[in-house]
């Protein structure tokens, strides 16, 4: 009898390090923080990494160390995606920004910018990358969402709306990609020690009228049972595993790296 549902061919043992030699990856926001850690991890595993960032110096520095290629674009410009390579096997949608303000005071243009960078750009990048992935019968999309893709916090209307939208987009890509060997998942970090969070500590101090020293304990980590910031390398390790040979059955999922925040 013909086996209509074959097992994946020659899986390596579960202890084998992820080998991405021959694969190409594109990481947005690859010049800093989580994106930079992802670029390092994917390159270390053997992938050729396209480092996409609007910060030219940062993108070039990461590309130099990883042996990849820097692409300096502003992802708020929909035309920018057309300048990026279409033939990528792994797409990490990571670029993001934050703005903290109550809704009545939230600048509409800032709201729109956040949707463009964190929702429209990932959609356009998927749209561009998927035909190549489908042709190869393999692909990995990892969307760097947030605990704020699953939970809301005050003063973050644009960010929470964008991350919830990214969750939906990721699930649609998972369903459409499944027959083509393409998985799409979100990772959902709590607060990670990056320049973005350092900026938020300043903004939250102003919004709550408290000192910056108190923001970490009383605001950022208040809902996290694990009382420390997450490190970028811990996020990159999860992203790398999602790109490896043992994660093909995990798709349309959201992996909480939130110190137990969403368990409560
Ligand atoms: P970061 O500020 O350290 O890095 C973000 C990078 O994205 C920067 O290099 C920046 O230049 C780039 N970028 C921003 N806007 C861009 C644009 N329009 N075009 C091109 N590049 C652009 O931030 P990070 O903390 O590493 O965050 C990365 C992702 O992780 C974001 O999507 C963020 O929402 C998510 N995240 C961060 C945390 C955290 O605590 N740091 C928690 C959960 C989720």
Characterization of the model:
The protein has 264 residues and is of the alpha/beta class. It has 2 domains: 24-192 and 230-253, Rossmann fold (3-Layer(aba) Sandwich); 193-229, no CATH class. It is built from 7 helices and 7 strands. A 7-stranded parallel beta sheet has the order 3-2-1-4-5-6-7, sandwiched between helices. α2 (56-66) links the parallel β2 and β3. α1 runs parallel beside α2 (56-66), α1 crosses α7 and α3 runs parallel beside α4 (157-177). The model has no long low-confidence stretch (mean pLDDT 94). Bound molecules: nicotinamide-adenine-dinucleotide. The site of nicotinamide-adenine-dinucleotide has 27 residues, from α1 and α5. One of its GO terms (molecular function) is 3-hydroxybutyrate dehydrogenase activity. InterPro entries: 3-OHbutyrate_DH, NAD(P)-bd_dom_sf, Sc_DH/Rdtase_CS, SDR, SDR_fam. Belongs to the short-chain dehydrogenases/reductases (SDR) family. This is 3-hydroxybutyrate dehydrogenase. Keywords: Oxidoreductase.
Provide tags for this entry.
3-hydroxybutyrate dehydrogenase activity; 7 helices; binds nicotinamide-adenine-dinucleotide; SDR; 2 domains; 7-stranded parallel β-sheet; 264 residues; alpha/beta
Give me the secondary-structure topology.
Layout: E1 24-28, H1 33-44, E2 48-53, H2 56-66, E3 69-72, E4 90-93, H3 108-136, E5 139-144, H4 157-177, E6 182-189, H5 195-208, H6 212-220, H7 232-242, E7 254-257
Parallel strand pairs: 1-2, 1-4, 2-3, 4-5, 5-6, 6-7
Helix pairs in contact: 1-2, 1-7, 3-4, 5-6
Nicotinamide-adenine-dinucleotide is lined by residues 29, 31-35, 53-55, 58, 74-76, 94-97, 117, 144, 146, 189, 191-192, 194-197.
């Amino acid at each position: 009898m013909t086996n209509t549902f074959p097992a994946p061919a020659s899986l390596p043992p579960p202890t084998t390090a992820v080998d991405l030699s021959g694969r190409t990856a594109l990481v947005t926001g690859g010049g800093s923080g989580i994106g930079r850690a992802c670029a390092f991890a994917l390159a270390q595993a053997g992938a050729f990494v396209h480092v996409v960032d609007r910060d030219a110096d940062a993108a070039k520095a990461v590309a130099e160390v990883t042996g990849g290629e820097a692409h300096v674009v502003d992802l708020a410009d929909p035309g920018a995606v057309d300048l990026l390579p279409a033939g990528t096997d792994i797409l990490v949608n990571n670029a993001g920004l934050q703005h903290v303000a109550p809704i009545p005071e939230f600048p509409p243009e800032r709201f729109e910018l956040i949707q463009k960078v964190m929702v429209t750009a990932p959609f356009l990048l998927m749209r561009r990358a998927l035909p190549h992935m489908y042709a190869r019968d393999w692909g990995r999309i990892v969307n760097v969402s947030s605990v704020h893709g699953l939970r809301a916090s005050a003063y973050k209307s644009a960010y929470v709306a964008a991350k919830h939208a990214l969750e939906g987009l990721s699930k649609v890509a998972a369903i459409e990609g499944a027959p083509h060997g393409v998985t799409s998942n979100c990772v959902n970090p709590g607060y990670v020690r990056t320049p973005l969070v350092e900026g938020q500590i300043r903004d939250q101090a102003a919004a709550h009228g408290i000192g910056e020293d108190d923001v970490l304990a009383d605001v950022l980590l208040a809902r996290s049972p694990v009382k420390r910031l997450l490190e970028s390398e811990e996020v990159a390790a999860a992203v790398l595993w999602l790109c490896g040979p043992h994660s093909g059955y995990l798709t349309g999922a959201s992996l909480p790296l939130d110190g137990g925040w969403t368990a409560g």
